[in-house]
Design a protein that fits this description.
It contains eight helices and 19 strands. The chain is α/β, with parallel strands linked by helices and 395 residues long.
Length: 395
């Protein structure tokens, strides 16, 4: 190759190298500029967010939540774990415990249960508890029960909510060779019930279900009974059912001239279940005229923790039932014992209450329109025990 050609080739290579270097410099400048711009844009958006702009959405498993920051220019969303965002959360939701100082409440406690030797022991059959916010409070037991050996086994129970509030209880489990019979209540005849509680401002009646079997309502009416509240059915283990005696009881009680009401056995875990079940209930009633409100009867308190709901949830569930029933054209009321009316039900909208308190004179100070006085009533027309009720006409 002569010198002239070599010079030309060198010039061409030099030009190519210069172009490549220039392109690399330009590309670098572009990338750095974009990085700086994006960082500045995100920083500016975050600085514009206010506490009222932050919404918290709890996921189903409650292990993560989504923080959404809204601005007037653009909406950006970031997902973080609860641990990462605890300090950054600036707004408390309705379902948040906030500055919770209330300890879990014990709904049911058998302090000295008897267990037959060799039977299995499940502590949750003898205690029920709930928290105002925490749906799954921590449950710890100090001690063990050996059902193979007769004796008394002391247990120390601690229930702790997510805010660290504690409730403690003691249980002495007795492993025995034979279960001792419990105390029995005295029965009360309906004529004695009339003598004690009938006046110008009361009506006296009974409530029944399939457990009373076949009922002669003509004899019930002749004995002085004025009304009957019957179980229509309810919701049990995830499905609805109609009480096997409901249609017969309804027909025969009306034919005997008794006033009629119904109660609904409830075990809902959510307002959605209640809405579905009230729709089913209205189908069962099919426009049937009732003289008394439809009672909501939720009683599975010895197993309450298994529902994984809190005290706010259960009260919302009842209020939804009340709202749905009244919207369908019927009256509704809450059935519960004195204990749960005081420690569980808030009844913030002051709906009618059917109080259960098995005592001669109740000392419950809340409002109620009907009182279930006893579960050991006896009346002609029914074989066995029946619940006795006083309806107050002036309340």
């Amino acid at each position: 190759m002569d010198n002239k050609k070599r010079e030309i080739l060198i010039k061409i290579l030099s030009v190519c190298i210069s172009i490549a270097v220039l392109a690399a410099v330009v590309l670098g400048i572009v990338m750095v500029s974009r990085f700086i711009y994006n960082k500045s844009f995100k920083s500016d958006n975050k600085s514009k967010a206010t506490p009222s702009d932050v919404e918290i959405e709890v996921t189903e498993d409650e292990t993560e939540y989504k923080t959404t920051v809204t601005t007037t220019e653009e909406e950006t969303t970031e997902e973080k774990t609860t641990e990462e965002t605890t300090e950054e959360t600036t707004e408390e939701t309705e379902e948040d415990a906030g500055d919770d100082k209330t300890a879990p409440v014990i709904l049911v406690l058998n302090g000295a249960p008897q267990i037959k030797q060799w039977d299995s022991f499940d502590i949750h059959k003898y205690i029920g508890y709930a928290d105002d916010w925490d749906r799954t409070p921590d449950f710890e037991v100090d001690g063990e029960v050996d059902t193979s050996t007769i004796g008394t086994y002391p247990l120390k129970i601690t229930i702790t909510d997510e805010s660290g509030n504690e409730t403690k209880a003691d249980m002495n489990v007795k492993v025995v060779s034979e279960i001792a019979p419990g105390k029995t209540r005295d029965t009360i005849d309906f004529d004695e019930f009339i003598r004690l509680y009938k006046n110008s401002s009361t009506e006296l009646g009974i409530d029944v279900s399939r457990w009373q079997g076949d009922i002669d309502f003509n004899k019930v009416k002749a004995a002085g009974c004025e009304f009957v509240i019957m179980r229509v059915g309810g919701y049990d283990d995830g499905s609805v059912y109609v009480d096997s005696q409901y249609y017969k009881n309804l027909k025969n009680a009306k034919a005997a001239g008794l006033k009629i009401g119904i109660y609904y056995h409830a075990e809902e875990r959510s307002v959605e279940e209640v809405k579905q079940n009230v729709a089913w209930l209205m189908g069962v009633l099919d426009g049937e005229k009732l003289d008394y409100p439809i009672a909501y009867d939720w009683e599975d308190f010895a197993n309450f923790e298994s529902y994984k709901i809190n005290l706010h949830d259960i009260n919302d569930i009842y209020q939804t039932f009340y709202d749905e029933v009244t919207a369908a054209g019927y009256d509704a009321m809450l059935y519960s014992s004195k204990n749960y009316l005081m420690c569980l039900w808030t009844n913030k909208n002051k709906t009618p209450v059917w109080l259960a308190h098995y005592i001669d004179r109740t000392d419950y100070t809340g409002d109620y329109i009907m009182w279930q006085k006893d579960c050991k009533g006896r009346i002609d027309g029914i074989s066995g025990d029946v619940d006795l009720n006083v309806m107050y006409l002036d309340r």
